[in-house]
Amino acid sequence: MDCGKSTMALQMNHNHARQGRRGLVTTRIDRSLGPQVTTRIGLAHAAVEVTDALDLRDLVRDAWAEGVRVDYLVCDEASFYNLEHIDQMADLVDNYDVDVYAFGLATDFRSCLFPAAQRLFELADEVARIQVEVLCWCGREGLLNARVVAGRVVREGRQVVIGDTVDTAEVRYQVLCRRHYRAGDLGGR
Q: What UniProt keywords are attached to this protein's entry (predicted)?
């Protein structure tokens, strides 16, 4: 959505690491090659790829068994995790004293909650909107992420399709205010 979620995730990891805390960075379906968190401003950090089979609690317990301290997890693209992963995050906080910071979109291209985001909202101790101001082409606050195919806003299809924000991408996403999202108006790009 070009609002700085992954940048904030990497900043969170950096700030905690500077204070001597040890953490793990995880991601799922990042647009880059290889298991890493990448940002559109050029930052990148190695990450553990979250698959359906991965149990986040086992990830932490395995690190502990190898003598690696884990104080926190930074979970990028959390909207693409499955519901079990979200419950595992809550378990890590409640029963293992591991801090968990999850970053992701709330809604998909149809403006419907991702199942993982809904579960995060149900269980999270705190939910905060990213403070980076994201604007629609008209200057209003950008609230929704439209999927654009062949120059048109589409409202049907698989919930998760990887794209980018550049005009040349086969599938791209454009942030719009509610008015222009509902109208399918991409402005004069």
A: ATP-binding, DNA synthesis, Kinase, Nucleotide-binding, Transferase
Same domain, 80 and 163: no
Domain count within the chain: 2
Question: The tokens of 123 are what?
Answer: 């269980």
Q: Is residue 165 part of a domain?
A: yes
Report the greatest alpha carbon distance in the chain. 56
Cα–Cα distance, 152 to 146 (Å, whole number): 9
List the structure tokens of 89: 């995050």
Lookup: tokens for 19: 């204070």
DSSP calls for 144-167: EEEEEETTEEE--S-S----BSST
Three-class SS state of 82: coil
pLDDT average per 10 residues of sequence, the chain (189 residues): 74 91 88 69 81 97 97 94 98 98 91 95 90 84 90 90 72 91 88
Range of the domain at 14: 5-123
156: tokens are: 């049907």
Residues making up the annotated binding site are 160-163, 173
77 catalytic residue (yes or no): yes
